[in-house]
Amino acid sequence: MILVTGGAGFIGANFVLGWLSSSEAEGVINLDKLTYAGNLANLQSLKVDPRHMLVHGDIGDKGLVSNLLSKYRPRAIVNFAAESHVDRSIHGPAEFIQTNIIGTFNLLECAREYWASLRDSEKEEFRFHHVSTDEVYGSLAPSDPAFKESNPYEPNSPYSASKAASDHLVRAWFHTYGFPVVTTNCSNNYGPYHFPEKLIPLVILNALNGKPLPIYGDGQQIRDWLFVGDHCSAIREVLAKGRLGETYNIGGWNEKANLEVVNAICAILDELKPRADGKSYADQITFVKDRPGHDRRYAIDASKIEEELGWRPAETFDTGIRKTVQWYLDNPDWVQGVVTGSYRDWLEKQYHN
Ligand code: NAD
Ligand code: DAU
């Protein structure tokens, strides 16, 4: 088995679904706290799949994590669990420190203890894969080269600082204890099951609901967008073939200004689901107050993972964004559950009293 943490969230769920889509795949223990970002509807199609087991719990719970490891003896851990939204980290950083730093620390310690108890051959095979972000490198000027793995860490938000701290812990566990880790730092993902607090799903849903499309500042901030399925395929490659103690940047060579992304979404919606009044969804674009400390530009140099492991993204931005818009149009029940909050009813039912 493998242990996945945060596998009910956006990328974690896409990873678990992708992993189990192969009939030869090992089973998955999915440890998730089911915060507002965890949604069991993402995993609906696995309801009757005996290879998937959801455990509702916290990566910071030592007793629970240690028990899971000794009971199920996974050969790898893939750590997605995190608080992931920059704006929320500005309003309330405490949860970010708790899960992203203390939680990762706890997971590392439990995993190290478990790893020490393994037979030599199992020890050799074991991997701790830490999923991180390009935001740890800070912000680029327009003419700066893209982030390489050797760039210094310069995080600017409570979120990116907490992820940077977790990356440092993971690195130290390798150097100090010889604990077998790999870390990946990925750019902005988009695709199915993306929670609509983030730019792309927010814009799709606001557009369809006739609401303003909020653009922070001048909308010229640049992000490097990668379709979530490509992030997941990169993680599988690194987990299988990545060198221990190494970090790998993952990105789509797809730098786009926010305004360009929003206009692209509006153009696709104009074609697939035209507004009743015949006007463009772009008319709903509204410039709003900027995010404090807003990083101007991220860009990933993905040549290391491409050259060493042969990984390449399958989607371009044009194909990926079209698939994404289509997915939101095709899945009104998922959207409705998220928008009304009814996706959280299961928690109420299950844990009442
Ligand atoms: P998400 O917010 O959609 O999902 C996070 C998941 O972790 C949720 O299911 C949540 O319930 C769970 N979780 C939160 N705290 C937990 C805890 N203490 N114990 C167990 N589970 C907990 O996040 P995402 O966008 O899917 O991101 C997943 C990972 O990838 C994060 O580590 C994030 O930093 C990283 N990342 C995200 C992006 C992106 O564009 N979304 C890009 C690069 C890296
Ligand atoms: O770079 C990787 C990171 O990408 C991940 O580590 C984070 O977990 C993930 O949330 C994402 O962070 P961003 O802050 O880049 O994503 P977000 O979707 O929040 O914002 C994308 C850009 O759009 C950013 O420049 C802010 C802007 N924005 C966002 C929102 C929600 C707007 O202009 N308006 C909005 O309403």
From TrEMBL:
Residues 3-324 form the NAD(P)-binding domain. Keywords: Lyase, NAD. One of its GO terms (molecular function) is dTDP-glucose 4,6-dehydratase activity. Its cofactor is NAD(+). GO terms for biological process: nucleotide-sugar metabolic process. The keyword Repeat does not apply. Its EC number is 4.2.1.46. It is an enzyme of class 4 (lyase). It catalyses: dTDP-alpha-D-glucose = dTDP-4-dehydro-6-deoxy-alpha-D-glucose + H2O. Pfam families: GDP_Man_Dehyd (PF16363). The keyword Lyase applies. Gene3D superfamilies: NAD(P)-binding Rossmann-like Domain, UDP-galactose 4-epimerase, domain 1. InterPro entries: dTDP_Gluc_deHydtase, NAD(P)-bd_dom, NAD(P)-bd_dom_sf. Belongs to the NAD(P)-dependent epimerase/dehydratase family. dTDP-glucose dehydratase subfamily. This is dTDP-glucose 4,6-dehydratase. It comes from Polynucleobacter wuianus.
